[in-house]
Amino acid sequence: MRLLFVSYRLPVYPGDASSNTVFNLVKYFSRSHQVSLVGLAPAPVPAERMECLARYCHRIEVVEWPKWRAAISTARGLMSSTPLQMSYFRSDAFAAKVRQVVAEEEIDLAYGYHLRSGQYLADLDSIPRVIALQPAQILHFGRRYKLTRNPVLRTLYRMEYRRLIGYEAELAQKFDSCLLISEKDRNAIDPESRLRNVFFNPHGTDVEYFAPPVDTVRDEATLVFCGSMAMDTNVDAVLHFRRDILPLVWAQRPETRFLVVGRNPTRPVLKLTEDPRISVTGLVQDVRPYLWKSSVGVDPIRMAAGMQNKVIEGLAAGLPMVVSPEANEGIHAPEGSAVLIGRTPEEHAAHVLELLNDRSRAESIANEGLSFVQSHWSWEHHFSCLEAHFDTLVSARACATA
Description:
Layout: E1 2-7, H1 17-29, E2 34-41, H2 47-54, E3 59-64, H3 67-77, H4 84-88, H5 92-104, E4 109-113, H6 115-118, E5 129-132, H7 137-147, H8 151-164, H9 167-172, E6 177-180, H10 183-189, E7 198-200, H11 207-210, E8 222-226, H12 232-250, E9 257-261, H13 267-271, E10 278-280, H14 288-293, E11 296-299, H15 309-316, E12 321-323, H16 325-328, E13 340-341, H17 345-357, H18 359-376, H19 379-401
Parallel strand pairs: 1-2, 1-4, 2-3, 4-5, 5-6, 6-7, 8-9, 8-11, 9-10, 11-12, 12-13
């Protein structure tokens, strides 16, 4: 097949979960198909990153979309009822480039990653189109609105949440197929179950890449959170952990260290290092050594929706994980055997202490978590299902037009 992938963010940014997903999607489908890619970039992309992506693409079209243009577009969007994130990523040049590639490459099927990319494919009904609504933005912004303390951000999140009501389902109806991660996302997007084109297809991770070496020796009493600190959802999770959970751990194990691994840490996150037991790395070339040497992985995220890459990567690295219910929503790791879930700060801290104090229990959780990821969360497992789905959609369209 001749496939087109459309992404609101060019998949060349290390440490970004969305970028990682689209990159692996392109890499997988390039094995057997001709892949074209159209992506937005906020600034010129370094040549070495483009070269890495180009290995897997027949054609790449990049449209630069600097933040100042995005800001102007968003300001204009205030006058409409459309979600502001759609205006932020709305580019006429990008739309024209998508139409050009569809025509010139005789595309058989187009895939749009994220709600924000859907606006560029919604009206191109000459070919089968798939929209990946991952994660559900109404769920995402609903949690941001409820949990954010900053009054300005709270107002903005409330506005975006209201604009999203019904919007994702309305857009999804224009596509041949709507990809969702879980029933939780579907219930948020389509509470009345009116969509008839839903296909559940979460993504995965490179299980072998994250697998710990056989001679791995883990540090004593070291906790790790691994995720981009440019994301406000991750910042909230880290600050919440430090404020509400870590003091309960320190009350019994005061020597416990906390590692925060991820690019672009904000000032409040950097300020946490005033306590010598907390380390903030910023961008690292390879996150695996931090996962391999830590005792326990944590993900107390509260504002997220969809699937948490940091959880499946931690499990694949052989870490016993303690996570929030929100972090496990799209993963469905068996509670109590593959992961431990903390629904309150007290429960979260108790689980962390349990794993620190009982190495046998920690090893059991880690082994079950690794086995679960190996069975359910490889890239190949989910992308092969998606590939078969693409075949079905192309065949169905061919039969309908014959």
